[in-house]
Amino acid sequence: MNTPISSRWRRSRAILLVGLVIFLSACSDGPPNVTVGLITKQEVNPYWVTMRDVAEDTAEDDNVTLLTATGTSDVDIESQSAALVDMVAKGAEGILIAPTSSTALLPAIATAKEAGVLVIAIDTPVDPVEAVDAYFATDNQAAGRLIGQYAKAKAQQLDLDPKIALLDLAPGISSGEARHRGFLDGFGIAEDDAAIVAMADTQGDRGLGEARMAEILAEHPDVNIVYTVNEPAALGALAALKAAERDLGQIILVSIDGGCRAIKEAVRPGDIDATAMQFPQNMAREGVRALARAIRGGEKPVGYFDTGVELVTGDPAPGVESRDVAFGVRNCWGD
Amino acid sequence: MAVAHDDQSWGPARVVPRHLRVPFILLVLCFATWGAAANLTDILVGVFRGIFDMSNFQSSLVQFAYYGAYFLLALPAGYINNRFGYKTGTLVGLGLAAVGGMLFLPASEILEYEVFLLALFFLASGLSILETSANPFVIAMGAPSKATQRLNLAQAFNPIGANIGVLMGAVFILPELTPESSKVIMNDAELLASQQADLDLVLRPYLGIAAALMLIWLLILFRRFDLPESPVPLGSEAKSSSTASRLWNNRHYRYGVMAQFFNVAAQTCIWTFTILYAQDVVGESAEDAGWWLQTSLIIFLFSRFLMVWLLGIFRPPLLLFVMAVFGVLCCLTAMFSLDVVGLVAVVSASASLSLMFPTIYGIALQGLGEDAKYGSAGLVMAILGGALLPMVHGAVMDTAGPAMGYAVPGVCLALVAAYAMFDLKNPRAAIEDAQAESKPGGERP
Q: Residue A3 falls within a domain, yes or no?
C-alpha cells in the first residue's frame, strides 16, 4: 500500500532536485565579481553625484563591487591621491578617476598601475594622456562647435549683425580652451574676427559670469551673441542681461553642460537659447563596464572614448540637428 | 437552447450559486486580465516612443489601435453573443486576445512598430468581445436578484488587474530599458541590439497575458456552464429604429453619450501620458515614472469607494460637476506648474475620474425604461474617445510642449462638468413635460 506514496515521493524529490539544479545553474550564470573604484572631484556639484549614482547602479547590475571616494573641491589633490592608495590596498582591480590635477596625481596613478590596476581618467585628462590606460570624456571641442553652429544659424535667422561676447573658463584649462576653439570653429570665425567684441574669464562661476557680463554690457551694449563656457556662467550672464533690461529675444545665449537646473529654469523658458549637453552618466556607466570587462579577461580599454554630446534647445535653428527640451529634462544631471 | 432561471430555481439566493463558483472565478480572472492588458498598454506609449524614436503623436497610435479595436468590435461582439451565446462569445474573445498576445512574438522579431500595433489591435479586439460577453455572462450566472451585486463583485477585480498591469510594466519593463543617454553614443549595430533587447522586455508580459488567456480559454472550454445559451434576441428593426429616435431626441441621453466620450478620452489621456509627463516635464526616471502611474491607479481604486459613499450624500450630477471641475484644476496645474506639484496634480486627477463612467452612465440612462438596453450600447461605444483624443494630446505635446498636452483632458473634463451642470439645471420631469407638450402623441409618455 505504501508503494504509490513512495513512488510519488520519489517523483517529487526528483522534480525538486531537477528544479534545484536549474535554479543553482541559473544563479551561477552571472559574471564573476570584480572590484572597481570611482574617485570623483567633489560632491557639491550634482554632476559628480549623478556620476556616482550611475556607477553604483551599473556596478549592481554587473556584479561589480564599487569602491567610491571623493575630494572636497575641484582642486583637492591630497584626497584623491590618498583614495588611489586606499583603493589599491582594498583590492580594486580597476579605478576610474576624475583628476583634480592633470599632473600632480601622476605618481599615485603610476603606483596603482605598477600594482596591476587599470586606470581610466574620466571627464578631465591627465598630462601626458598615456599615464592612464584610457580617457573617457566629452569631446569639448565638438560641444563648442555645436553651439557655435547653432548661434550662427540663429543669428542668420534673426538677421543679426553678430557682436559676440565670449565668457571663458580660465587660461590654461584644456576643457575651456577646447570649448572656446569649438565655438569659433562652429561659428566659422577666427580668434581675431571683428565680430568678437569682448572676452572674459569666469572660472565657470555664476557670480563672476554675472560681473563680467555686466562689465561687457557697459562697454559694448550692442552685444547680441553670448558664448558661455558652462551653465553657471550662463546663468550669471543671464542675470546681468536681465538686470540691463536687454531684449532676450534679440540676444543669443548659448552654453555647455546639461545640468537639470539650467535646462528647467533657463533652457525650457528660452532664456538660454541652446546648451550642449554632456553625459556624466555615460562616463560612469561605460567606465565601470569597460573595467569590469577587461578585468574579466576581455578587451582592455585604450585611448580616448567619446561619451557623447547633444545640442538641446526649445527653439531649433535651421540646418542644425538638435534635441528638444523634453530630451534635456529626461537626460539632464542633478535635480 | 435558452434555459429559464428565476430566483426559485437557484434555491436560496446566493451571489454565486455553489455549482457555478469555479466558472465565476474563471470569469473574474477574465475581468482582471483585461484590466491588466489595458493598463499595461498605457505604459507602452512611452516605451515605444523610446524604442522607435518617435514623436508623441506617433506613439499615441498605440491607444488608437487599442481603443479603436474596442469600438469596432463592440457591435460584432453583441452579434456573437446573441447568435451563439455568452460562452461562445467569451471563448472567441479569449482566443482572439490570446492570438493578439502571441503576435507580439513575431512583432518583436520583425522590429516594426506597425506590427506591434496590429498585435495590439488583435489583443484589444479579443478583449472587446470578452468584455461584451463576460458582463452579461456574469449577470446570467445566478439569481437575477443578485445580478448587480455579482457584477460589482466581478468588476472589482478589473481595477486590481489594472494595477497588476502597471506593476508588470513598472517592475519588468521600465527599469530594464536601455538608458536614453546610452543610445547617444551607440553605433547602428548597438542601437539595433538595444532595440531588440528592449522589445524582448515588452514581449514577456504580453506572452504572460497570452498564456493566462489561453489557460482560461481551456478551462472555460471544458467546463460545463448551466446557463442560458441563447439570450433574448434583440427587438425588431422597426422597434430598434424607434428606440434610436427616442434616444436621440432625449438630450440627457444624447449629451450623456458625448460626456462619456470625453470622460473616456480624459481618462485615457491622463493615464497614457502620466509617465511621459513625469519624465519629460519633471525629469523622473522611467522606473520612478512607472510608480507615479501606479500611485495614480491606486488613488483611482480607493477613490471609487469614497465616491460610492459620497454618492449616498450628494446628488450624482452635483458630485460629477464638483469632481469634473477638480479634474480641470488638476490639468491646469499640470500645464503651468512644471515640477513635482504638476505631477501630483496629474496623479490626483485620477480621483476625479473614479466616479465618472458609472455616474454618467447612470445619469444618461435615467428614466429610459426599456430603451436603456439599447442606450447602454451607445454609452459603451463612447470608448471611441479613448482612441481619438490621445492622438490630439500627443500632437499638442509635440507642438506646444509636454505639459501643454494636459489642455486636452482639461477641456474634456470641462465638457463633462458642462454636462453635469446641464443635468442639474434641466430637471428631467420638466423636460419630459416640455416634450409631451411639444409632441402630443409622442412615443414616450
A: no
